[in-house]
Design brief:
Helix content: 25-40%
GO cellular component, one term: plasma membrane
GO molecular function: coenzyme F420 binding; oxidoreductase activity
CATH architecture: Roll
Catalytic activity: oxidized coenzyme F420-(gamma-L-Glu)(n) + a quinol + H(+) = reduced coenzyme F420-(gamma-L-Glu)(n) + a quinone
Shape: globular
Family: Belongs to the F420H(2)-dependent quinone reductase family.
Order of helices and strands: EHEEEEEHEEHHE
Number of helices: 4
InterPro entries: F420H2_quin_Rdtase, Split_barrel_FMN-bd
Amino acid sequence: MAAAGEDVEFSPMDWVRNQTKKVLETGTTEGIEILGSPIVLLTLRGARTGKLRYTPVMRVAQGGSYAVVASKGGAPEHPTWYYNIKAHPELSLQDGTANRKYLAREVEGAERAEWWGRAVAAYPPYAEYQEKTDRQIPVFVLDPR
């Protein structure tokens, strides 16, 4: 979460901003979904601005770590938050009422395949998104700090 007086910027996209505000107002991600799948809320630092930004993503968890998938619905380019994580891999993740710090790392090879399988199981449209784009959709694993 933001420190007192720290600049936080909300998404310009209505549905993202509305989901974020709902989490912040209720204090939990429980019961908040994207297309029927549960979410977690990331608090990231902007790559260019340094401002804190909130990003709701699908909940993909295993053994205390999480995966976040930079799908952007299968668009040809990465979502903006991909670059934020690359520039500032230390972030916070809220799952339910628990908010903890994590360190993100982009995964490749067998580890990516393993997490990709978990992600598709949690949110099947990811498979369709990969078919729509020529880029390999990046997967980050977030390990607790």
